[in-house]
Amino acid sequence: MEIDQILKLVEAGFSKEEILKLQNVQQTQPAEPKEPVEPKEPAEPTQPSALGGIDAIISKLDTLADSLNKLNIVNSQQPPQEGYEDMLAKIINPNYKG
Q1: Is residue 43 a part of any domain in this protein?
Q2: What one-character DSSP code corresponds to residue 49?
Q3: CA separation for the pair 12, 4 (Å, rounded)
Q4: Any residues with CB less than 8 A from the CB of 26 and at least 6 apart, and which?
Q5: Any idea what DSSP says for residue 72?
Q6: In the chain, how many domains are there?
Q7: In this structure, is residue 45 part of a structural domain?
Q8: Region for 13 from its dihedrals, namely left if φ exceeds 0, alpha if ψ lies in -120 to 50, beta otherwise
Q9: 2 lies in some domain
């Protein structure tokens, strides 16, 4: 296995152990030319396995959004309500800042 191939595998996310296993498999395989294999069409279309991961991520994001909404509600504050003293003071003096 060449360094370029190893670097590509590392960039693709393979671990050291996985690369060593691939290297061992390549060394044990004979270097005989194989007969050309015709590509087989799948019998039925299958959904990519990544969709299961996406569903899990979406459910986690939904729970995170719900918890953030609950925290926002708990931490929200209502504006202070004016008391009758403040209302009377504004009637008497319109520039009053209570």
Answers
A1: no
A2: T
A3: 12
A4: 1
A5: H
A6: 1
A7: no
A8: left
A9: yes
CB 26 within 8 A of CB 1: yes
Reading the block at residue 32, the tokens are 């005989």
Length of the chain: 98
- pLDDT per position as a tens digit, 22-75: 777 666 655 555 666 666 665 665 555 556 678 889 999 999 999 999 988 888
Counting other chains too, the contacts that 44-49 makes at CB distance below 8 Å and 24 or more residues apart are none
In-domain check, residue 58: no
The two three-digit tokens of residue 55, written as one number? 């569903």
CB 98 within 8 A of CB 86: yes
Domain that holds residue 6: 1-28
In the block, which residue shows the tokens 């504006």? 79
pLDDT, greater one: 30 or 8? 8
